[in-house]
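Quick question, first post here. What does this chain look like in 3D?
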Amino acid sequence: MSALTLFGLFAVTAMLVFYSLEDRNPLCILGFAAACALGSAYGFLQGAWPFGIVEAVWAIVALRRWRLKSARR
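> Answer (accepted):
Ran it through. Tokens below.
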């Protein structure tokens, strides 16, 4: 398994973990945003630019959700 594949596996696994924990703490939403950014980087690095773009959009959406949820506390 290549280093790039391991990086992608880590990014997608982190997305799944942080997504499942989002209701517990706003920092989990921030972690999900960071994992989406890693997933986006993986997509671009492997040449799947549509995947990279979609993951970048998810990262932006998650950052906005984190900001709104943090402001409510």
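The chain has one domain: 3-72.
The mean pLDDT is 95.
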